[in-house]
Amino acid sequence: MAISQLFGDSITNIIWFLLFIILAFLYPRLMIAQMLENFTLKAKEIVVKKISKKPKRELKEAISNFLEFFMIEPVSLDPFGIVKKIEHIINLSEKRFKYFVSKIAPKLNSEEKANLIMGLSGAISLNQIAKIVRHYVELIRKTKNLQLALFLQMQLPLIERISKALLKGTEALTNGWPIGDSVGAFVAAHLIGKERVKEIEEDTIMAKKRIKGKEVYVIKAKGPGGRLGKIGRAVEKIVKRERVAKIITVDAALKLEGEKTGGIAEGIGVAIGGIGVDRAYIEEIASKENIPLDSIIIKMSQEEAIQPIKKEILASIPRVVEIIEKNVEETKEKGKILVVGVGNTAGVGNNKKKAEEAEKLARKILAKEKLEEKKKLKFFKMLYS
Fold first, then answer.
1. Domain residue limits, the chain
2. CA distance 75 to 89
3. Peptide bond just before 224 cis, omega within 30 deg
Protein backbone atom coordinates (compact mmCIF):
# COMPACT_ATOMS: atom_id res chain seq x y z
CA MET A 1 0.00 0.00 0.00
CA ALA A 2 1.41 3.41 -0.96
CA ILE A 3 2.50 5.80 1.81
CA SER A 4 0.31 8.55 0.30
CA GLN A 5 -2.75 6.27 0.55
CA LEU A 6 -1.97 5.42 4.20
CA PHE A 7 -1.47 9.10 4.93
CA GLY A 8 -4.74 9.96 3.18
CA ASP A 9 -6.66 7.28 5.12
CA SER A 10 -5.22 8.53 8.41
CA ILE A 11 -6.21 12.12 7.67
CA THR A 12 -9.72 10.95 6.72
CA ASN A 13 -10.06 9.00 9.96
CA ILE A 14 -8.87 11.97 12.00
CA ILE A 15 -11.33 14.29 10.23
CA TRP A 16 -14.25 11.93 10.84
CA PHE A 17 -13.23 11.48 14.47
CA LEU A 18 -13.11 15.24 14.96
CA LEU A 19 -16.42 15.57 13.15
CA PHE A 20 -17.95 13.01 15.52
CA ILE A 21 -16.68 14.95 18.58
CA ILE A 22 -17.86 18.30 17.21
CA LEU A 23 -21.31 16.98 16.29
CA ALA A 24 -21.58 15.38 19.73
CA PHE A 25 -21.00 18.88 21.10
CA LEU A 26 -23.35 20.50 18.60
CA TYR A 27 -26.23 18.03 18.98
CA PRO A 28 -27.62 19.51 22.22
CA ARG A 29 -27.51 22.96 20.64
CA LEU A 30 -29.26 21.71 17.53
CA MET A 31 -32.03 20.40 19.81
CA ILE A 32 -33.04 24.08 20.00
CA ALA A 33 -34.78 23.40 16.69
CA GLN A 34 -37.20 21.16 18.60
CA MET A 35 -37.57 23.87 21.24
CA LEU A 36 -38.54 26.38 18.53
CA GLU A 37 -41.21 23.98 17.30
CA ASN A 38 -42.60 23.91 20.84
CA PHE A 39 -42.52 27.72 21.00
CA THR A 40 -44.61 27.86 17.83
CA LEU A 41 -47.14 25.43 19.32
CA LYS A 42 -47.33 27.52 22.51
CA ALA A 43 -47.84 30.71 20.50
CA LYS A 44 -50.63 28.99 18.58
CA GLU A 45 -52.24 27.86 21.86
CA ILE A 46 -52.16 31.45 23.18
CA VAL A 47 -54.02 32.68 20.10
CA VAL A 48 -56.52 29.79 20.16
CA LYS A 49 -57.32 30.23 23.87
CA LYS A 50 -58.06 33.92 23.27
CA ILE A 51 -60.85 32.85 20.91
CA SER A 52 -62.23 29.80 22.72
CA LYS A 53 -61.47 27.80 25.87
CA LYS A 54 -62.75 24.70 24.10
CA PRO A 55 -61.60 25.19 20.50
CA LYS A 56 -62.88 22.95 17.72
CA ARG A 57 -60.56 21.12 15.34
CA GLU A 58 -61.59 23.42 12.47
CA LEU A 59 -60.44 26.49 14.42
CA LYS A 60 -57.04 24.95 15.19
CA GLU A 61 -56.59 23.95 11.55
CA ALA A 62 -57.56 27.41 10.33
CA ILE A 63 -54.98 29.09 12.59
CA SER A 64 -52.30 26.52 11.68
CA ASN A 65 -52.89 27.24 7.99
CA PHE A 66 -52.83 31.00 8.54
CA LEU A 67 -49.44 30.77 10.27
CA GLU A 68 -48.05 30.05 6.79
CA PHE A 69 -49.24 33.46 5.56
CA PHE A 70 -46.61 35.42 3.63
CA MET A 71 -46.24 38.77 1.88
CA ILE A 72 -44.21 39.22 -1.30
CA GLU A 73 -42.54 42.60 -1.69
CA PRO A 74 -43.14 44.37 -5.03
CA VAL A 75 -40.39 44.48 -7.64
CA SER A 76 -37.99 47.39 -7.08
CA LEU A 77 -35.91 47.29 -10.28
CA ASP A 78 -37.51 50.62 -11.15
CA PRO A 79 -37.62 52.45 -7.78
CA PHE A 80 -40.12 55.09 -8.96
CA GLY A 81 -43.39 54.59 -7.11
CA ILE A 82 -42.06 51.79 -4.90
CA VAL A 83 -43.56 53.35 -1.72
CA LYS A 84 -47.07 53.24 -3.22
CA LYS A 85 -46.53 49.61 -4.26
CA ILE A 86 -45.34 48.58 -0.80
CA GLU A 87 -48.22 50.47 0.83
CA HIS A 88 -50.67 48.64 -1.43
CA ILE A 89 -49.25 45.25 -0.43
CA ILE A 90 -49.32 46.21 3.28
CA ASN A 91 -52.95 47.35 3.02
CA LEU A 92 -53.91 44.08 1.33
CA SER A 93 -52.12 42.15 4.08
CA GLU A 94 -53.97 44.09 6.81
CA LYS A 95 -57.31 43.44 5.09
CA ARG A 96 -56.53 39.72 4.94
CA PHE A 97 -55.68 39.65 8.65
CA LYS A 98 -58.85 41.56 9.57
CA TYR A 99 -61.01 39.29 7.41
CA PHE A 100 -59.48 36.13 8.90
CA VAL A 101 -59.87 37.32 12.51
CA SER A 102 -63.48 38.43 11.91
CA LYS A 103 -64.17 34.99 10.44
CA ILE A 104 -62.68 32.90 13.28
CA ALA A 105 -63.57 35.23 16.17
CA PRO A 106 -66.77 37.14 15.25
CA LYS A 107 -67.81 37.62 18.89
CA LEU A 108 -64.71 39.61 19.91
CA ASN A 109 -64.98 43.40 19.99
CA SER A 110 -62.89 45.63 17.72
CA GLU A 111 -60.09 46.14 20.28
CA GLU A 112 -59.82 42.41 21.03
CA LYS A 113 -59.72 41.69 17.30
CA ALA A 114 -56.91 44.22 16.88
CA ASN A 115 -54.97 42.46 19.66
CA LEU A 116 -55.57 39.08 18.06
CA ILE A 117 -54.24 40.35 14.74
CA MET A 118 -51.02 41.44 16.44
CA GLY A 119 -50.80 38.12 18.28
CA LEU A 120 -51.14 36.26 14.99
CA SER A 121 -48.33 38.39 13.53
CA GLY A 122 -46.06 37.32 16.39
CA ALA A 123 -46.99 33.67 15.96
CA ILE A 124 -46.31 33.84 12.22
CA SER A 125 -42.85 35.31 12.84
CA LEU A 126 -42.07 32.57 15.36
CA ASN A 127 -43.32 29.89 13.00
CA GLN A 128 -41.10 31.27 10.21
CA ILE A 129 -37.99 31.16 12.41
CA ALA A 130 -38.76 27.56 13.45
CA LYS A 131 -39.19 26.54 9.79
CA ILE A 132 -35.88 28.11 8.74
CA VAL A 133 -33.95 26.48 11.59
CA ARG A 134 -35.59 23.12 10.85
CA HIS A 135 -34.62 23.53 7.18
CA TYR A 136 -30.94 23.99 8.04
CA VAL A 137 -30.93 21.17 10.61
CA GLU A 138 -32.35 18.77 7.99
CA LEU A 139 -29.90 20.06 5.39
CA ILE A 140 -26.97 19.45 7.78
CA ARG A 141 -28.26 15.97 8.56
CA LYS A 142 -28.56 15.04 4.89
CA THR A 143 -25.33 16.61 3.61
CA LYS A 144 -23.20 16.21 6.78
CA ASN A 145 -21.87 19.69 6.05
CA LEU A 146 -19.65 20.64 9.01
CA GLN A 147 -19.27 24.27 7.95
CA LEU A 148 -23.04 24.74 7.80
CA ALA A 149 -23.41 23.07 11.21
CA LEU A 150 -20.84 25.40 12.75
CA PHE A 151 -22.50 28.44 11.18
CA LEU A 152 -25.92 27.44 12.56
CA GLN A 153 -24.43 26.69 15.98
CA MET A 154 -22.94 30.19 16.13
CA GLN A 155 -26.31 31.76 15.33
CA LEU A 156 -28.38 29.69 17.77
CA PRO A 157 -27.88 31.83 20.92
CA LEU A 158 -29.25 34.88 19.08
CA ILE A 159 -32.07 32.86 17.50
CA GLU A 160 -33.01 31.49 20.93
CA ARG A 161 -33.14 35.00 22.46
CA ILE A 162 -35.34 36.36 19.68
CA SER A 163 -37.63 33.31 19.73
CA LYS A 164 -38.22 33.53 23.49
CA ALA A 165 -38.96 37.24 23.12
CA LEU A 166 -41.41 36.55 20.27
CA LEU A 167 -43.26 33.99 22.40
CA LYS A 168 -43.60 36.51 25.25
CA GLY A 169 -44.55 39.18 22.71
CA THR A 170 -47.25 36.98 21.21
CA GLU A 171 -48.75 36.48 24.66
CA ALA A 172 -48.57 40.21 25.43
CA LEU A 173 -50.08 41.34 22.12
CA THR A 174 -52.85 38.73 22.16
CA ASN A 175 -53.88 39.81 25.66
CA GLY A 176 -53.52 43.54 25.00
CA TRP A 177 -50.54 44.15 27.29
CA PRO A 178 -48.22 47.10 26.58
CA ILE A 179 -44.89 46.16 25.00
CA GLY A 180 -41.60 48.04 24.68
CA ASP A 181 -42.58 49.39 21.27
CA SER A 182 -45.65 51.00 22.89
CA VAL A 183 -43.53 53.73 24.50
CA GLY A 184 -44.25 56.28 21.74
CA ALA A 185 -47.99 55.70 22.20
CA PHE A 186 -47.56 56.15 25.98
CA VAL A 187 -45.89 59.53 25.47
CA ALA A 188 -48.61 60.68 23.05
CA ALA A 189 -51.40 59.57 25.42
CA HIS A 190 -49.80 61.50 28.31
CA LEU A 191 -49.56 64.61 26.14
CA ILE A 192 -53.20 64.30 25.03
CA GLY A 193 -54.30 64.43 28.69
CA LYS A 194 -58.05 64.99 28.85
CA GLU A 195 -58.43 66.47 25.36
CA ARG A 196 -61.01 65.11 22.94
CA VAL A 197 -59.63 62.88 20.20
CA LYS A 198 -60.88 62.15 16.71
CA GLU A 199 -59.96 59.54 14.12
CA ILE A 200 -58.09 61.44 11.42
CA GLU A 201 -57.02 58.41 9.39
CA GLU A 202 -57.73 54.68 9.53
CA ASP A 203 -56.72 53.39 13.00
CA THR A 204 -55.08 56.76 13.75
CA ILE A 205 -56.29 59.43 16.19
CA MET A 206 -55.41 63.08 16.77
CA ALA A 207 -55.97 65.58 19.56
CA LYS A 208 -55.49 69.36 19.59
CA LYS A 209 -53.84 70.87 22.65
CA ARG A 210 -52.08 74.03 23.75
CA ILE A 211 -48.62 73.45 25.19
CA LYS A 212 -46.55 76.40 26.41
CA GLY A 213 -48.95 78.75 24.63
CA LYS A 214 -48.64 77.02 21.27
CA GLU A 215 -51.12 74.87 19.38
CA VAL A 216 -49.97 71.26 19.17
CA TYR A 217 -51.50 68.34 17.29
CA VAL A 218 -50.77 65.01 19.00
CA ILE A 219 -51.05 61.90 16.80
CA LYS A 220 -50.94 58.20 17.70
CA ALA A 221 -52.38 54.88 16.60
CA LYS A 222 -55.89 54.22 17.93
CA GLY A 223 -55.83 52.24 21.18
CA PRO A 224 -56.04 50.27 23.31
CA GLY A 225 -56.09 47.49 20.72
CA GLY A 226 -52.78 46.59 19.11
CA ARG A 227 -52.44 48.88 16.07
CA LEU A 228 -49.73 50.81 14.24
CA GLY A 229 -52.02 53.27 12.50
CA LYS A 230 -51.51 55.23 9.29
CA ILE A 231 -49.13 57.79 10.79
CA GLY A 232 -47.64 58.95 7.49
CA ARG A 233 -51.01 59.56 5.87
CA ALA A 234 -52.26 61.41 8.97
CA VAL A 235 -49.27 63.78 8.99
CA GLU A 236 -49.57 64.39 5.25
CA LYS A 237 -53.27 65.23 5.61
CA ILE A 238 -52.62 67.83 8.36
CA VAL A 239 -49.65 69.44 6.57
CA LYS A 240 -51.72 69.87 3.40
CA ARG A 241 -54.44 71.84 5.20
CA GLU A 242 -52.52 73.59 8.02
CA ARG A 243 -49.38 75.66 8.39
CA VAL A 244 -46.98 73.39 10.29
CA ALA A 245 -43.94 74.77 12.09
CA LYS A 246 -42.36 71.49 13.12
CA ILE A 247 -42.87 67.73 13.26
CA ILE A 248 -41.61 65.84 16.32
CA THR A 249 -41.58 62.04 16.20
CA VAL A 250 -41.16 59.84 19.28
CA ASP A 251 -40.35 56.15 18.94
CA ALA A 252 -38.53 53.18 20.41
CA ALA A 253 -35.07 52.59 18.92
CA LEU A 254 -32.60 49.72 18.96
CA LYS A 255 -29.88 50.21 21.55
CA LEU A 256 -26.32 48.99 21.22
CA GLU A 257 -25.05 46.37 23.66
CA GLY A 258 -23.69 48.23 26.67
CA GLU A 259 -26.23 51.05 26.41
CA LYS A 260 -28.90 51.38 29.09
CA THR A 261 -32.48 50.35 28.46
CA GLY A 262 -34.72 53.43 28.63
CA GLY A 263 -31.95 55.82 27.59
CA ILE A 264 -33.18 58.89 25.69
CA ALA A 265 -31.57 60.57 22.70
CA GLU A 266 -32.60 63.57 20.59
CA GLY A 267 -31.87 64.13 16.93
CA ILE A 268 -33.29 65.21 13.61
CA GLY A 269 -35.17 63.22 11.00
CA VAL A 270 -38.19 60.93 11.21
CA ALA A 271 -38.02 58.37 14.02
CA ILE A 272 -40.13 55.61 12.52
CA GLY A 273 -38.91 52.04 12.04
CA GLY A 274 -40.51 49.27 10.05
CA ILE A 275 -40.72 48.90 6.31
CA GLY A 276 -40.59 52.67 5.72
CA VAL A 277 -43.91 53.71 4.15
CA ASP A 278 -44.96 56.12 6.94
CA ARG A 279 -41.45 57.54 7.14
CA ALA A 280 -41.40 58.12 3.38
CA TYR A 281 -44.69 60.05 3.47
CA ILE A 282 -43.50 62.34 6.28
CA GLU A 283 -40.08 62.94 4.72
CA GLU A 284 -41.65 63.73 1.35
CA ILE A 285 -44.15 66.29 2.63
CA ALA A 286 -41.68 67.82 5.11
CA SER A 287 -38.99 68.34 2.46
CA LYS A 288 -41.56 69.79 0.07
CA GLU A 289 -42.83 72.30 2.67
CA ASN A 290 -39.41 72.84 4.31
CA ILE A 291 -40.64 71.71 7.74
CA PRO A 292 -38.08 70.96 10.48
CA LEU A 293 -38.02 67.34 11.65
CA ASP A 294 -37.06 66.61 15.26
CA SER A 295 -36.93 63.14 16.75
CA ILE A 296 -36.74 61.62 20.21
CA ILE A 297 -35.89 57.96 20.72
CA ILE A 298 -36.11 55.68 23.74
CA LYS A 299 -33.48 52.96 23.61
CA MET A 300 -34.14 49.26 24.09
CA SER A 301 -32.99 45.91 22.72
CA GLN A 302 -34.74 44.07 19.92
CA GLU A 303 -36.15 41.60 22.45
CA GLU A 304 -37.34 44.34 24.84
CA ALA A 305 -39.24 46.03 22.01
CA ILE A 306 -41.55 43.05 21.51
CA GLN A 307 -41.83 41.86 25.13
CA PRO A 308 -44.01 43.37 27.91
CA ILE A 309 -42.69 46.87 28.57
CA LYS A 310 -39.86 47.11 31.13
CA LYS A 311 -39.85 49.41 34.17
CA GLU A 312 -36.81 51.29 32.80
CA ILE A 313 -38.78 52.17 29.67
CA LEU A 314 -41.81 53.24 31.70
CA ALA A 315 -39.53 55.45 33.80
CA SER A 316 -38.38 57.31 30.67
CA ILE A 317 -41.89 58.51 29.71
CA PRO A 318 -42.15 61.58 32.03
CA ARG A 319 -38.70 62.72 30.92
CA VAL A 320 -39.66 62.46 27.23
CA VAL A 321 -42.82 64.50 27.90
CA GLU A 322 -40.65 67.22 29.50
CA ILE A 323 -38.28 67.22 26.51
CA ILE A 324 -41.20 67.64 24.09
CA GLU A 325 -42.69 70.51 26.11
CA LYS A 326 -39.31 72.26 26.15
CA ASN A 327 -38.91 71.67 22.41
CA VAL A 328 -42.36 73.18 21.77
CA GLU A 329 -41.54 76.19 23.96
CA GLU A 330 -38.28 76.85 22.09
CA THR A 331 -39.84 76.56 18.61
CA LYS A 332 -39.58 79.95 16.87
CA GLU A 333 -41.30 79.08 13.60
CA LYS A 334 -44.96 80.05 13.23
CA GLY A 335 -47.61 77.39 12.78
CA LYS A 336 -48.91 74.21 14.35
CA ILE A 337 -46.53 71.69 15.90
CA LEU A 338 -47.13 68.00 15.26
CA VAL A 339 -46.08 65.47 17.90
CA VAL A 340 -46.27 61.89 16.65
CA GLY A 341 -46.18 58.98 19.11
CA VAL A 342 -44.94 56.15 16.92
CA GLY A 343 -45.23 52.43 17.64
CA ASN A 344 -47.65 49.67 18.55
CA THR A 345 -50.35 51.04 20.83
CA ALA A 346 -51.14 47.64 22.37
CA GLY A 347 -52.73 48.18 25.78
CA VAL A 348 -52.40 51.97 25.58
CA GLY A 349 -55.61 54.02 25.34
CA ASN A 350 -56.08 57.47 23.86
CA ASN A 351 -55.65 59.76 26.88
CA LYS A 352 -53.56 60.23 30.02
CA LYS A 353 -55.95 58.33 32.30
CA LYS A 354 -55.89 55.27 30.02
CA ALA A 355 -52.08 55.51 29.77
CA GLU A 356 -51.79 55.49 33.58
CA GLU A 357 -54.06 52.43 33.73
CA ALA A 358 -51.82 50.72 31.16
CA GLU A 359 -48.75 51.54 33.27
CA LYS A 360 -50.36 49.93 36.33
CA LEU A 361 -51.16 46.83 34.27
CA ALA A 362 -47.58 46.72 32.95
CA ARG A 363 -46.14 46.89 36.49
CA LYS A 364 -48.44 44.04 37.62
CA ILE A 365 -47.24 41.90 34.72
CA LEU A 366 -43.60 42.68 35.56
CA ALA A 367 -44.18 41.80 39.23
CA LYS A 368 -45.82 38.51 38.20
CA GLU A 369 -42.88 37.66 35.91
CA LYS A 370 -40.41 38.44 38.68
CA LEU A 371 -42.30 36.17 41.09
CA GLU A 372 -42.33 33.32 38.56
CA GLU A 373 -38.56 33.72 38.02
CA LYS A 374 -37.98 33.50 41.79
CA LYS A 375 -40.08 30.32 41.97
CA LYS A 376 -38.08 28.74 39.13
CA LEU A 377 -34.78 29.71 40.77
CA LYS A 378 -35.95 28.26 44.09
CA PHE A 379 -37.01 25.04 42.36
CA PHE A 380 -33.63 24.57 40.66
CA LYS A 381 -31.78 25.28 43.91
CA MET A 382 -33.82 22.59 45.64
CA LEU A 383 -33.28 20.23 42.72
CA TYR A 384 -29.49 20.52 42.74
CA SER A 385 -28.91 20.97 46.47
1. 31-175, 180-368
2. 11
3. yes
